[in-house]
Structures are given as structure tokens and as C-alpha cells.
Amino acid sequence: MKRKIAKGLMAASVLICCLFLVKEVVAGRFFPLYETETESVSVPPRAVKSLSVSSEQTDVKIIAEARNDISANVTGPAGKMFVRSRGKTLDLKAKEKGFQFLNLFQRPLLIVRIPYDYHQDITVRSSSGSIAVDGNRGLSLSHLGVHTVSGNMSLKHVKTDVFEAKGLSGDLTAAGLAAKTADVRLSSGNVGLHHVSGPLDVRVASGSVDASLETASAPVSVRLASGSAAISLPKDGSFTVNAETASGRIQPSYSFEKTSKEGGAFTGIKGSGSRMIDIKVTSGNIALQ
User: Fold this and answer.
1) Which of 33, 121, 225, 269 is most exposed, with minimal Cβ within 10 Å?
2) Angle at CA 234, nearest 5°, toward 229 and 236?
3) What predicted TM-score, i.e. pTM, was given to this entire model?
């Protein structure tokens, strides 16, 4: 009996070690060896033209503030951070320390604080963890990209020339987003866009799209394979809504000036109808409100 127990403990130990090695190998693909491991970093914004943030098993929060440096630190005992500077590109990478199964309720959080006068590029990638960007009504960038394999993405009060969001599994919520170009790609998840302005291209394989448009001064395209779409249209403006669903219903409660419907296609015109809003759902309902 004792031999069996000993063998069982040994097998369990080997399994844990193997899992740890596999985890470290996989992590190495995302996190190559960096020269500097640190608890915190502070860099003047004039020295950075591109900020790249990556994380594994770690949540990321970016906060815009009235400050004179770009700073970052990892909270909680389970996380660690690597820093590398390549020219004017600043790489921040956070990951979970090994053997953290005892810290299930202390998930690491990478906090990056940026000044309002930083107007360059920010790209955030996460293999497993949430991404949050809070512009505090004062963040204006040339490019913002958020990418996650598994995790939710949220943004508040961000103005950017180019916005990109890509996710395999997780939700995206954005409030007060203003972009000259905005592309959203989700394989599985829900998209919530509140008070957004500018051109918008949203493509979701499985999930839902709930968007409220602040203005209709730019083209909007929504493509959804399976799920429902609810679009809140602005009270004023000149736009044409073309909605189509192969299997589902179209519910137009918005007060259009002209409407037409044929089969699973609906067209609604407001004003001169100069701006196009296209919504196509393969299987699901469309609400226009």
C-alpha cells in the first residue's frame, strides 16, 4: 500500500513538472528572454513612439493621466514584468510566475499609466487575460490595437486615428470611442459600442452586436454570422440603412422618412441618405432603433 502511495505521489510530481515545463515552453513563444526583469518602469514620453504591451495569464489596464512619464508596474505577488527598449519602441511584457495554483484569487494585473500628451501608438496583446483602456476623456492616439486570444476587452473615452480590435474568445465593450478608422473582428463574443463616432467595420462570427452611433457622418458596416444585432441610430443626419438577414426578423422602430422591405431585406432612409449603414446577419434578428 505504501509503495502504491509513493508511486502515486511520484507520478503526480512528474505530471506537475511536465505541465510546468509545457507552460514555460508555450510562454517562451510569447515571451522571449528579455534583459530586464523589473517591478516597475518609468520612461519619458518623448522617448517612445510605439508602446507594445503583452501579457499571459495577466490582466492589463492602461490609464491616461495628467503626468510626465510612462510608468508600469505589476500588482500582486503572482506576476512579473519584463522591459525592453528598441529604439523608440518600448516593450512591456507581463506573465504569471510558475506554480501559482495557490494564488487563484490573486490574478496579476499590469497597470500602465500614460500622460495625456502621448499621441503615438499603443498595441496590447493578451494570450489569456482582460484588457482595459481608460482614456479619462483626454487620450488621443495615432493608433490603438487590442488583441486577445481569450479574454474581454473594454475601452472608455478614446480618440484615435486607427482602432483595431481582434479576439478569438471574449467580449468587446467601448464607450465614447472616436476613430477615423475602426475595425473589429471577433470569432466568438459580444460587441457593445456605445456613443461611437467615425467609420466602423464590425465582423463577428458568433455573438451579438449592440451599437449606438453618436453621428452618421461616416460609413458603417456590420457583419454577423450567428447572433443578433441592435443598432441605435442618431436622431439627426442623412443616412441610408440597408439591413438584411437570411434567417431572422428585422424590427425597425426608428422613424425613417422612407422605407422599403422585400423578403429578408429592409431599407430605411433619413434625410438625403448620403451615408451608408450596412447590416447583414446570416442567422439572427436585426433591431433598428
Assistant:
1) 33
2) 150
3) 0.84
